[in-house]
Specification:
This is SMI1/KNR4 family protein. InterPro entries: Knr4/Smi1-like_sf (IPR037883). The chain is α+β, with helices and mostly antiparallel strands. It has one domain (4-11, 20-170). It is 31% helix and 21% strand. The chain has 5 helices and 9 strands, in the order H-H-H-E-E-H-E-E-E-E-E-E-H-E. The chain has helices at 4-11, 23-30, 36-44, 65-86, 153-161, and strands at 48-50, 54-56, 89-92, 98-101, 113-119, 124-128, 137-141, 146-149, 180-182. Strands 4-3-8-7-6-5-2-1-9 form a 9-stranded mixed β-sheet, with helices on one face. Helix 1 (4-11) packs parallel to helix 5 (153-161) and helix 2 runs parallel beside helix 4 (65-86). The longest helix is centred in the middle third of the chain and has 22 residues, at 65-86.
């Protein structure tokens, strides 16, 4: 399991102080308890952008809990609509081989997808939530294709940056050697 120290060894220490996140308010409003690795990351870094491609978002700053959820409401609605409209998804493996699968549930459903980032290609980066927040895994979707990574937020980022994880939506090169910008 990767740690925040592993991630920081790759991307360097933060250059700006991150906005403070009111986790009790966010968690009360969402009904979710967020993973400890994400909370640790959010206490250390601001929103990050990798190679002007992957945006890793966090609550905080001027955002109140309602604004945090509202910011993702269109994404959540699109995912719900896709699942309802088609009844199945195209789930791809690490080699981009598709299979038909049942849709993932979407927040606020128990075990539903909840977004944490996006790409300039229009991909959505989500958690597949679980009652145990440290068992949340990663789902990346274009809405046409879906990919599931069975690790944590930090495992996923460290894996992308070290070529240990290959997400088909992110291309063969992944994010090895990515530039990082704090927003």
């Amino acid at each position: 399991m990767s740690s925040l120290a592993d991630l920081e060894a790759i991307i360097g220490p933060p250059g700006i102080p991150p906005p403070v996140v009111d986790w009790p308010a966010i968690e009360l409003h969402t009904g979710l308890v967020f993973p400890s690795d994400y909370k640790s990351w959010a206490s250390r870094y601001s929103t990050l952008e990798f190679d002007e491609f992957l945006l890793v978002s966090k609550p905080g700053g001027n955002s109140n809990p309602q604004e945090f959820i509202q910011g993702w409401s269109d994404v959540l609605g699109n995912m719900r609509q896709w699942a309802t409209r088609f009844g199945e998804i195209e789930l791809v493996d690490d080699n981009d081989v598709p299979t038909a699968a049942s849709p993932f549930p979407v927040y606020p459903s128990v075990g539903g997808l909840f977004p944490w980032g996006s790409t300039t290609n229009g991909d959505y980066c989500c958690w597949l939530t679980d009652p145990d927040p440290d068992r949340w895994t990663i789902v990346i979707t274009t809405l046409h294709q879906w990919w599931h990574y069975p690790g944590t937020f930090t495992d996923f980022l460290v894996g992308l940056l070290t070529a240990q994880v290959r997400c088909p939506m992110f291309g063969a090169e992944g994010l090895v050697g990515a530039t990082v910008e704090e927003l």
